[in-house]
Amino acid sequence: MTSPANNSLVFLFLRRMRVPLTVLILAYSIATVGFTLIPGTDDQGNPWRMSFFEAFYVVSYTGSTIGFGEVPYDFSPGQRLWTMVSIYLTVIAWLFSIGSIVSLLQDPAYRRALRRARLARLVRNLNEPFYLICGYGDTGRMLTRALTDRGHQVVVVEHNQDKIELLEVEDFDVPVTSFCMNANLPDNLVEAGLRSRWCSGVIAVTGEGHVNLKVAISATLLNHKVAVYASADTRSEADNMRSFDTDHVVNPVEEYQRRLELAIDKPDLFRLYHWLNSGPNARLTKAVSIPRGKWIVCGFSRVGRAVWKLLQERDMEVVVIHPDPEQSNCPAGTIPGRGTQAEELTAAGVEGAVGIVAATNDDADNLSILITARALNPDLFHVVLENGLSSHALFRAAQPDFLGQPSSVVAGTILSRISSSLVEPFTQQLLQQDNETARQALAAFLRHQSDHPPQFSSGRISARRAPALARALEAGRQITVGKLLADPRDWQQRLHLEVLLLRRQQQDFLFPADDFALALGDRLLLAGRDGEAARLRAVLENDERLEYILTGRDRQQGLVWQWLERRSG
Fold first, then answer.
1. Helices (H), 320-362
2. 371 Cβ contact list (under 8 Å, min separation 6)
3. Angle 278-284-285 from CA coordinates, rounded to 5°
4. Given phi > 0 = left and psi -120 to 50 = alpha, else beta, which region is 296?
5. For 165, 206, 354, 559, which has the most beta carbons within 10 A of its beta carbon?
6. CB under 8 Å, gap of 24 or more: what pairs does 206-212 form?
7. pTM (2 decimals)?
């Protein structure tokens, strides 16, 4: 089936070259017919006329300025005169046609169509799994970087040419294919590889909720097997996406509210949750205690409204500052302004407040609020929203107590879900735990983990995925979680891994203990240092390595060694 890009390329070429090709065909036709009508003489002096083939042959070499001479006989004066007319006629037609072709090749629309056709051909020729990312803003850039760092192929769809040019100068570990086109058109998604059998997942992070919704719907309907991850701006969009069986939906406002709620109620659980769900560049946050008392919320946007509601539910006094209180349905007592001026903050009672939330849609205003409030009350707890990553260095220098980054939240959450389908049930169970359980889990990680987030991995105990372990279990040997995590280089040491979740049939076990016995069919979700999961996979597939971590003895493979082992036994 011909792709839309190829169709548009052919259509554009034929439309732009219609007049030049018509002129060229007419010039050759007139010159050819003229040669057949003008009489000449043969070598015997008898009159003769050229056939259409002979006439077209003469026009071909005269029109191309090659010039083979007068064939098959010397031309008559009339034929020579018509030859001159034909030369000028066809050369001018060729110059006009070549000029049109050069102009067409320089035309931006044709160059874009040519590039799209080439990219579509590249996608069709892909023979390994890839992810289709729609949108190359802050979130899309983080996802592209993280996925290519893990060795995944990525195809990007972005309508902004400037962002595409930025992507093309980026240095990725794996080549990235990028299309400059609208992601909300299903045909464009198909052209970018949506229906390819190698498409592992579609990620909709365009920055516009309705476009993400359209992408999620298109992906679900056009490719039932592909996993779909999407960002939603509102709850209604999120619910609509879930109704189409979107695999994972991230609402950055709800996620921001959830993390702030955890920071208030379960600070250690917040640290663990935030660490595991904020992407590969996240760092373990310091333990903080969010004070209770009077708070000031600057900006009654979706984030500001969610934070105001959360603080109200915690029985805290909240004063809102917003430029237009009446049109934004702000609560009674809202102070007009942005919160960047000392007079506005003083009117809100900043001297007696315990915390301030800068949640406007402008990063410059949020930084100004933080700095102005700090000058008026150095003891304030600062919660700040960072709308875009372009000002991240400034936010880092300002050192707020709680920094919200919607792009990092969305990217980190999606990345964790891509790692394994067990991450979602693990997260849901983790959120139900108390703070003490989270503190113990953090302590377990920090025994072998720096502040870099652990990497998720997963596997199933089966004859195909873990043949050595399956054979040992079928032989009746009891193998526990602790034994499985022994280091294959030194069986008395432990791999830098933790088992987060063990799923046995329909039952899940969160943080199974070291003495938990494994069984065939178990699915494991692990997290730990980079590269540790690869060492574990080598154990699962090799009988000798498995024997070593279980007993501490190297199992010799040669026939002589096996005979000596039996004799000594």
1. 342-347
2. 398
3. 100
4. beta
5. 206
6. 206/134, 206/135, 206/137, 206/140, 207/135, 207/137, 207/139, 208/233, 209/233, 209/234, 209/237, 210/184, 210/237, 211/134, 211/135, 211/183, 211/184, 212/134, 212/135, 212/237, 212/241
7. 0.80
For residue range 78-109, list pLDDT tens digits in order: 999 999 999 899 999 988 888 888 887 777 77
User: pLDDT digit string (tens) for 372-409?
Assistant: 999 999 999 999 999 888 888 898 899 899 988 888 88
The predicted-structure confidence for 188-235, as pLDDT tens digits, reads as follows 999 999 999 999 999 999 989 899 999 999 999 999 899 999 999 888
In 3D space, the residue among 157, 209, 164, 160 whose CA is nearest the CA of residue 187 turns out to be 157
What number is the average pLDDT over the span 144-153? 92
Question: Is 396 exposed, middle or buried (CB count within 10 Å of its CB: 0-12, 13-18, 19+)?
Answer: exposed
Which residues are paired to 528 by β-bridges? 455, 497
d(CA 8, CA 110): 9
For the record, the structure tokens of 72 come out as: 């098959």
* C-alpha span between 373 and 389 (Å, rounded): 23
